[in-house]
Specification:
alpha/beta, Rossmann fold, Helicase, Ruva Protein, domain 3, 3 domains, 5-stranded parallel β-sheet, 19 helices, 18 strands, 14% strand, globular, disordered N terminus
């Protein structure tokens, strides 16, 4: 078994969720072999409790579990932390459930009984991608990539506000690149040499968010075995980026307003104030003015956060950026997933066409995930449309409003979903088996004749995988 360099992934956190103890143990050992830190949970509810205190980067979860299914757990994890990658373990005969999981944001699925090497490689690849996103940009590396004319006002406004210490509110749908806008502002500012510290307000409950930002004294809460400074103090004259501010409770909004007004913080459990000096950049994917009217967001805090407001357009309104960003993500994903100097597969015309036609509800983040997925599952030199995890008209199993109005019925939609799933499934099996049909069929839990029948239906040739 090939083991990833353990020194590379020592900061990776993996949570294994399965109601069978032996499977939990096996997946824990496999994940640990790449150097990751691993926790275990016997069901979905226990997993969520662990995630509250130990945010995981990757979750490996069984699909069929008592109390809470893997599909339900996936939805809840993505609601709390969209950046967490979830891999679903499925048994034979759960094709439709696996497709639904892909629709709901699963990064990948593995069929039981799974191959140990496949688990190690998948965790290693996902881990390298996740940790690569956390690396600070190097001098000369572009932070915000854009070619479409709709992004020109954004880049111009970034340049104008960067040299000023004013607070900036960055608005836009999830996945449009709001943190990249914030990093670009910081990098072009007078405090670029100072820290840039980012916090997702939606990922933490109030108590943990207060501890993260304000710091805490020893004994302030269970597990606080030592005192620590919060991010507002650690920023040391640099920039703090507070994402998803709309999720903050009204009581926490009041505490944040005091910090911005008085430039002091008090540690959780503390009794004295500490002076702070930082620039705050905030982001939201919600309409804060509507939330002000409904009483969910403080108007005085809104004006403190949004001295300057920058709106980032969704990817569907920036068509020129799609092939440009796809090429960039392809180069980066190949480097992080396959290793430096590895051959970079190219996008086929059909794949580029699929990228251009997709509505991208998840915006740039969804595009990056699609390319990462394609690099992982592609075993040849060319990335085809099915490698991307997209159907002809969106994510697997989705249809556009225009198609619904045109009368695309249930049977046709179901046939399209199953065909796309079969194509991906067979492609992965043949790729892993190097074109050996008997071995590929055995790994899928089907007969050689059944696999050959599917290959004929989908016009798949074994020679393409040798």
């Amino acid at each position: 078994m090939t083991v990833t360099n353990t020194s590379d992934l020592c900061d990776l956190r993996v949570l294994v969720v399965d109601d069978e103890a032996d499977i939990r143990l096996g997946l824990t050992r496999l994940s640990s072999s790449v150097g990751a830190q691993v926790e275990q949970a016997e069901n979905g509810q226990a997993a969520l409790q662990i995630l509250d205190r130990w945010p995981a980067d990757v979750v490996l979860t069984d699909l069929m579990m008592p109390k809470m299914s893997g599909a339900e757990l996936l939805v809840e994890i993505k609601r709390r932390s969209p950046e967490t990658e979830v891999v679903v373990l499925t048994g034979y005969g759960t094709v439709q459930s696996a497709v639904q999981c892909l629709q709901n944001g699963a990064a990948h699925f593995l069929t039981k009984p799974f191959d140990n090497e496949s688990v190690v490689q998948l965790v290693g690849r996902l881990g390298r991608q996740i940790l690569a996103r956390r690396l600070p940009a190097q001098d000369g590396d572009p932070l915000l990539l854009a070619q479409d004319a709709r992004m020109q006002p954004v880049t111009e406004l970034i340049a104008r506000v960067a040299t000023s210490p004013v607070a900036v509110l960055i608005e836009g749908e999830s996945g449009t690149g709001k943190e990249l806008v914030a990093r670009s502002i910081h990098r072009q500012s007078k405090v670029a040499a100072k820290p840039f510290l980012a916090v997702n307000a939606a990922a933490l409950p109030d108590a943990l968010l207060e501890s993260e930002l304000f710091g805490h004294e020893r004994g302030a809460f269970t597990g606080a075995d030592r005192a620590r400074d919060g991010i507002f103090v650690e920023a040391q004259g640099g920039t703090v980026f507070l994402d998803e501010v709309a999720s903050m409770s009204p009581s926490f909004q009041g505490k944040l307003l005091r910090v911005l007004q008085e430039k002091v913080v008090r540690r959780l459990g503390g009794s004295t104030d500490v002076d702070v000096n930082f620039r705050l950049l905030a982001a939201t994917n919600r309409d804060l003015e509507s939330k002000i009217k409904s009483g969910e967001f403080r108007e005085d805090l809104f004006y403190r956060l949004g001295v300057v407001r920058i709106f980032v357009p969704p990817l569907r309104e920036r068509p020129a950026d799609i092939p440009f960003l796809a090429t960039h993500f392809l180069q980066r994903s190949a480097s992080t997933s396959l290793g430096q100097g590895a051959h970079v597969p190219r996008l086929s015309p059909d794949a580029l066409n699929a990228l251009q036609r997709h509505p991208w509800p998840g915006n740039v983040r969804e595009l990056e995930n699609a390319i990462q997925r394609a690099v992982i599952v592609c075993t040849g030199d060319v990335i085809e449309s099915w490698h991307l995890g997209l159907s002809r008209n969106g994510w697997l199993g989705t249809t556009t409003a225009g198609e619904a109005e045109a009368g695309m019925d249930y049977a046709r939609s179901k046939h399209q979903v199953v065909e796309e799933f079969q194509r991906q499934f067979v492609h992965r099996a043949l790729g892993s088996a190097k074109g050996n049909i008997s071995r590929a069929a055995a790994s899928c839990g089907m007969t050689r004749a059944a696999l050959q029948r599917i290959m004929r239906q989908l016009d798949i040739e074994r020679e393409d995988y040798r």
